[in-house]
Amino acid sequence: MKLIKSFVFTAGIAAVMTSCGSGAEILSTPIENIDMVPLKISELTEAEKHNWGHLDLVKDTIPGMSVDKAYAEIIKNKKGEIVIVAVIDSGIDIEHEDLNGVLWTNKKEIPGNGIDDDNNGYIDDIHGWNFLGDAYDEQLEFVRIIAKGDESNPQYAAAVAEYDEKYQEALANKQRYDQIYEMVQSADETISKHLGKKEYTKEEVAAIDTDKADVKQAAAMLQNMYANGLDSSTAALSAIKEGVTYFSDQVNVNLNKDLKGRTTGDNPDDLTDVGYGNGNVMPSQKDESHGTHVAGIIAAERNNGKGANGVANNVQIMSLRAVPNGDEYDKDIALAIRYAVDNGAKVINGSFGKYYSPHSDWVRDAIAYASDNDVIFVNAAGNEGIDIDTKDVYPNDAIGTGTEVSKTFITVGALEPKYGPSMIAGFSNYGKINVDVFAPGAKIYSTTPENEYDTKGGTSMAAPAVAGVVALVRSYYPKLTAAQVKQVILDSGIPVMTKVVVGGDATDVRPFSELTKSAKMVNAYNALIMASQMK
Q1: Would you say 226 and 188 are in contact if contact means Cβ atoms under 8 Å apart?
Q2: CA 474, CA 531: separation in Å to the nearest integer?
Q3: Beta-bridge partner residues of 3
Q4: According to its UniProt record, which residues of this chain constitute the active site (predicted)?
Q5: What percentage of residues in the chain have a pLDDT greater than 90?
Q6: Buried/exposed 89-125: b ≥16 CB within 10 Å, e otherwise
């Protein structure tokens, strides 16, 4: 039987544990040595699929954040302070059954009177602000650079070169996904006809014994699909359809040089041109689900008998709609960060990113502003499976690998729900300098618009998992500064000693410690213990 290698806290962490306060109120001990714990070799149960990010590596042999263990053994019935978490994203369904009880409300603003009652520059901003107005579809940033036609722009030539490559790549991927969809659909119809029923199990497919070539081929295709983590033809068709939609959007929307997406009437290149947008933070359409999913990971009401549990209780979600179906504008992000800080947020989640940023200084200045005002910004590392120490990705708190402007900026990579060599999600970016920690980010179940729930993956899902842990620490240990809480998150994680596959390339295997600054997985249980010693 394979065994998980032992984890031992570093001497530095051990010193913090023993020297900072008595910690008498917490009798638990940190997770630090998991010798002789077997790897998870069976498939996740349905319950585990819905909350694997909350499970415990020792108890469940799944690399979750020990959230349930933290509630059961540490938080129990303790009362914490309310923490406002700003979610800068697409719209959030604030009427969702699992979110409508955890919303931030601007009590200084009178709804619907058309007056800026609190004089914060935003009229009727009841639950946040919508910087996109009625728009949603948008170009990628390098396409906007090309569309402006300014050949003197130092990024223009690179943008043109990238456009040609990305357009052909998106077109080829769309065609490939179209073909795969048709093949899986045909295989599903063939097996359904052979078995005489629409719904069937993978075991029934594996048991098929026939001389019919078309049935054999269909069964082989479905078994290959099962081997790649998809449990049914329905799930496969849904996932493939998402791919078709994604690449169709790239071809027709994101890479469309003629698209005029912005409708707010402001000048996106003038940071002083403010007052645009509106107070409607809801998604513009049902498919605009990203922000709702992210919000649920952080704060979906716990243990209410509904679809999902958020990481944090005692949270109010502030919705800042600033991320379109395409690349966000630097101006919107900079203003959204400042709005969050000025209106009481103590944590900001940013599950977005891009590789061109004409006004990155505006965003860095806003990130520094958050740090100066004791606010933590949790940032998704990105989903291209690349080393972001060698390629600029935005937003960031430094130029390249230079001096950081913030003491409270945390960048997060994504984990799969199985400890071992394949625990790093193949899509996840990484970086010894620019990625701080890893957290559950693949196959994450959470809220989606219209009281629905769905499973999504990305560093976009890993960041809010960490934002939830940050909110827990800030709620129960409010005297800690944002910088201290960041250090708790990095230092209290579980060290990973194993080698892992990088970027989904089975030939690229490296020590986990080379992929992240802390060389650790975030752990809520350990974070609360360490925070208790620092208060």
Answers
A1: no
A2: 9
A3: 38
A4: 89, 290, 460
A5: 83
A6: bbbbbbebbbbeebbbebeebeeeeeeeeeeeebbbb
- Say if strands 409-415 and 437-440 run parallel, antiparallel, or are unpaired: parallel
CA distances to 52, 76, 81 from 72, rounded to whole Å, are: 16, 5, 19
DSSP string, 58-89: HHHSS----HHHHIIIIITT-----EEEEEEE
Cα(47)–Cα(272) distance, integer angstroms: 49
C-alpha distances (whole Å) from 130 to each of 133, 179, 270 are 6, 38, 18
Domain 11-137+268-534 has CATH 1.10.443.10: no
Question: Which tokens go with 456?
Answer: 């999504």
Domain boundaries of the chain, sorted by first residue: 11-137+268-534, 156-254
pLDDT exceeds 50 at position 5: no
Residues belonging to the active site: 89, 290, 460
Confidence band, pLDDT 50/70/90 cuts, at residue 40: low
Q: What is the pTM of this model?
A: 0.88
* List of long-range contacts for 115-124, beta carbons under 8 Å, 24+ apart: 120/339, 120/342, 120/343, 121/274, 121/275, 122/277, 122/279, 122/339, 123/278, 123/279, 124/278, 124/279
Q: How far apart are the C-alpha atoms of 192 and 196, rounded to whole Å?
A: 6
From CA 119, how far away is CA 11, in angstroms rounded?
Answer: 51
Residue 436 CA to residue 442 CA, distance in Å, equals 18
